[in-house]
Amino acid sequence: MAVKSDTFPKLLLENARRFGDRPAIREKEFGIWQTWNWRQVADEVRALACGFAARGFKRGDRVAIVGDNRPRLYWTMAAAQSIGGVPVPTYQDAVAEEIQYVLEHAEVKFVVAEDQEQVDKILDVQERCPSLREIFFDDTRGMRKYDQSRLIDFEVLQREGREFDQKNPDYFVQQVEQGKGEDVAILLYTSGTTGRPKGVVLTHDNVLITARNGIEFDHLTQDEEVLAYLPMAWVGDHIFSYAQSYVSGFCVSCPENASTVMHDLREIGPTYFFAPPPIFESLLTNVMIRMEDAARISQIIFTYFMRVARSVGPKILAKEAVSIKDKWLYKLGHLLVYGPLKNTLGMSRIQLAYTAGEAIGPDIFDFYRSLGINIKQLYGQTEASVNVTLQPDGEVYPDTVGKPAPQVEIKIADDGEVLYRSPGVFQCYFKNEAETREIKTEEGWVHTGDAGFIDDRGHLKIIDRAKDVGKLNDGSIFAPKYVENKLKFFPHIKEVVAFGDGRDYCAVMVNIDMEAVANWAERNNISYASYQELAARPEVYQLIEDGVSKVNEELAADPNLAASQIRRFLVLHKELDADDGELTRTRKVRRRFIADKYRTLVDALYSDKKSCFIETEVAFEDGRTGSISADLQIRDLNVYTDLKKAS
Question: Would you say residue 612 lies in a domain?
């Protein structure tokens, strides 16, 4: 009897039958790619699920997953779902206290941890997690001297599962067949930009219908290649590396470790790629650094053909008509510049790339499309199972996030807030009815908290977070994220926090990109001993000021944004860090937290001070805390009043 594929485990069994010998997942270990086909994955998941059952795991129980992208951790999700359990992935770089909150709040019974580092975090908080019963680990390195009565090797768990399976041969399939599309599939905790993370409850229907719609929209097939390198706790990875792989049958590859991602990306040559804007920004920064080190003739060739690319590339990608001369120049540019550059980036085979999570700078977006890389933006949320809008082929614009995704409805509230409803809409926030009622209406509409509008092309434009969009004292609209993204196009600027709501003018705090600025400093014989010292150098201030002035020139050319020109800035003495609470685990700026933490600096930006002393507490990786202090320079800038001159 055919199994209705309305859950992940049912899809897994179907894929084992349909694509049995096709590769399902890979992992690079010790420099060698290990591959499992769909039939082997089904066997591994079955053994693991039966192992959980032998250990007393029941339908409805929750298992936390802590670690980098690993086949065994993806199998853990499918195994828990196979017997009616709920996987709860956590961010691998989260500190012990952050993981403790998730374990306690989700009432986790089992934990599957990748390695010694993650096990240590769990052991640190185990006594404060009353529901936690057992801890399993994947990587045995460094675990020999640990108390094995408290920890169980992953292979031992699977061995017990195979023994259980032999004694109960019908158990696994019966459990899988009991599953229904409306069952809870996963519990994903938001990154927590405004407070404690919320547990988003998603069903199999939520995730799989969204995944299927995305596959049909973009014509994805079982032949795609994907690199899984983003946090498993993030809904984007859950859709692109797990759900869509199970629905279409394509292969997912797990990199050896975080430091080898770029090398592994080039080896795999994915056809389908997803990255949040900071990844694309970082890749572009690396390109610019390499070009600054290149020979003069190479710089001239690169600059010339990138001008050609920006003029012609997006038109060719959109299949618009271009002149024979432009087409010939673009082909020559591909031979000399674009092709080698895409190969260096690991993007030679990409047919489709997506970015989301926050707005990407238009200049950065256009850069990749000019190379012939079909990058698109989508707008999504964890609460939507990702997709709210998608950009159709031939309608890809840097200033919009596309049209409503299949089966998604969008409306704009009177106050400009974007609302949506779809089959992907979450069931609730776990153990938080009040928050659920506040975000999700009885009719199924979800409040996004983002301000936006539908343009005359039917595309959604997001201005900023609704709570962040404000006004300057002269009544002009102020959208900080727009200003920040303009500045982050410059390779020497890694992060920006803009202020202006309720103020007379816009001012910003800047984080330099250490790699880019260090490279620049070396070429210019500028000495330094630390990030703090480099950030304070007057030459670095001038470098940043040049970029800010260019942004002011662009802002002045837009009558709606001219008032948002930056009047004052400073360069922070430390990098904004998630461990210090300044960023979320997905590297989103926690604007209000930063405004409070650096209140002294914000006040100084809106005074006549030319410098300001600050002492800041920082957290180290081993859990210790310390403090750093600095006397930060504040620079004033000229603003443009002649719009014709600026344009």
Answer: yes
Domain count, the chain: 2
Name the burial class of residue 574, with classes exposed (0-12), middle (13-18) and buried (19+) by CB atoms within 10 angstroms of its CB.
middle
Q: What is the mean pLDDT of the chain?
A: 91
d(CA 530, CA 183) in angstroms, rounded, equals 52
Alpha carbon distance 492, 513 (integer Å): 5
Contacts of 236 (CB under 8 A, 6+ apart): 230, 274, 276, 356, 357, 380, 386
- CATH value at residue 590: 3.30.300.30
Decide the pairing of beta strands 611-619 and 386-390.
unpaired
CA distance 493 to 497: 11
- Is 99 a member of any domain? yes
Mean pLDDT of 588-615: 92
Residue of 577, 447, 562 whose CA lies nearest to 506: 562
- CB atoms inside a 10 Å sphere around CB 527: 9
| pLDDT of 359 above 80 | no
pLDDT tens for 471-509 read: 899 998 888 888 888 898 788 899 999 999 999 999 999
Helices (H), 371-489: 433-439, 480-487
Is the pLDDT assigned to residue 621 strictly greater than 70? no
Distances in whole angstroms, Cα of residue 469 to Cα of each of 438, 478, 482, 500, 501: 20, 6, 10, 10, 8
CA distance 92 to 77: 16
* Element housing 332 (H / E): helix 324-333
CATH number at residue 255: 3.40.50.12780
Predicted local distance difference test score (pLDDT) of residue 278: 82
Any domain includes 47: yes
602, containing H or E segment: helix 599-605
Strands 272-274 and 352-355: parallel
**Residue 626 is which amino acid?**
G
Which regions of 83-165 does DSSP assign to beta strands (E)? 86-90, 110-113, 134-137, 151-153
- Phi/psi at 457 (5° precision): -95, 0
Task: Return all residues near 393 (Cβ < 8 A) that are at least 6 apart.
Answer: none
| Domain interval for residue 25 | 8-204+219-274
Q: Answer whether residue 397 is part of any domain.
A: no
